Amino acid sequence: MNSVRFRLCVMMFLQFFVWGAFFVTMGSYLGTIFAKYQETNQLNGIIGGAYATQTWAALFAPLVVGFAADRLFNKEKLNGVLHLLGGALLWWISTITDSPERFSWAMLAFFLCYMPTLALVNAITFQNVDSIENDFPKVRLWGTIGWIAAGLVVSQSMFGLFPIPVLPGVADASKTALPLQISAVVSILYGLYSFTLPPSPPQGRDEPFSLIKALGLDALRLFANPSYLMFAICSFLICIPLAFYYARTNEFVSAMAFGDRSAGVMALGQVSEIGFMAAVPFFLARLGVKKMLLVGMLAWAVRYALFGLMPSSPAMLLVGIILHGICYDFFFVTGQLYTDRVAPKEIRTSAQAFLGLLTYGAGMLVGNYVLGYWGGKIELDPTTKEGWLADAATYWLLPAGLAFAVAILFFVTFWDKTEGQKE
User: End-to-end distance of the chain based on CA atoms, in angstroms?
Assistant: First the structure.
């Protein structure tokens, strides 16, 4: 591995370590510090609103990258400044324990710093490798490894199998401010490290800024293709139940089976993601786009059904977590490849940006509010095992049903005519 690629791998590792260290366990932490709000049935809405800050920020991230990084500042320097600010905000957030509103506004400020850096690290990599197709997947893999490492550190266990006491004297770190503080410190160190990354100057100084292109809206012409229109609609819809997994699974499996090992057990989902990522070309060649996407959607329905119908079975909860590889890779990776196939060369970047806006932006934004509303509607008590056990079926079968309904809609309306085509 050459020096530049090694530095980029470290960058990608730190990028996702910062996010993974606190995001997976944030629901459990909020349930601890704001437990009193369960008495007024507000806790579920507080958790959903806090997770929605990430998706609100995702909607605005393309504007930061499209304007500042493409026209004004070196990408590595902008990345450094944003992570220094983000680290300071995370440390402040770790001290907020008395006001859900202040917590959410501060978290929104953090994610407005963090979400643009997801695109920045990709752009820095693209600008500094010899072959994007060959080198980028190898660099990006270290982001997933960073997320896994964060889960192992916070849980102090090797995937829940045996303890690794990296935080001596700390028990059940997921319910404390420590994950936020770890992320804050790593973010600040990473911000400083970013200034040592290979120079990545702006490449669009001579081009006029276009809000339409920054948001990927010039890709709307792909909707003239009925199959792509249905793919886009289903991509938005499937991300509504998707939000339930990211926001509530850790606190759920922690209460039901895995306790303070949950973050480490959850990391098995990313291990599964790595394995299935390597298998995508094999399955895509044999199943085709439609079956791959359909299997990914159905995997979400199966996962939530397992959570709802067998909440007391650690083995079934583990199966649901490990299904993450199929859920993510078969749908999202295949969807990105399909988008690249159908989009003309001149709008492929915009098409990918728009797909991200539909899914991790709009779809998950709606999903985060739905999950908060639904928890409040059924009066779920997420602070105890008994509370989860009483309402697990009602809570988790909603996203299972939504995912299954989207899969049926997709099966009936989507017909891919691009197999074997590439412009």
Answer: 32
What is 1-209's CATH topology? Growth Hormone; Chain: A; (1.20.1250)
Phi, psi of 163, rounded to the nearest 5 degrees: -75, 145
How much is the pLDDT for 90? 98
Residue 328 is given by DSSP the state: I
Amino acid at site 168: P
Domains 1-209 and 215-423 share a fold: yes
pLDDT at site 216 = 62
Tokens 């303070």 map to which residue?
260
So what's the pLDDT on residue 284?
Answer: 87
Domain range annotation of the chain? 1-209, 215-423
Report, as ranges of residue numbers, the positions in the chain whose pLDDT lies below 50: 420-423
Please check whether residue 228 is in contact with residue 283, taking contact to mean a CB–CB distance below 8 angstroms. Answer: no
CATH number of 215-423: 1.20.1250.20
Residue 32 token pair: 């601890």
Integer angstrom CA distances of residue 226 from 98, 195, 215, 322, 403 = 50, 46, 22, 33, 21
> Helix, strand or coil for residue 160?
coil
With contact defined as beta carbons under 8 Å apart, do 197 and 79 qualify? yes
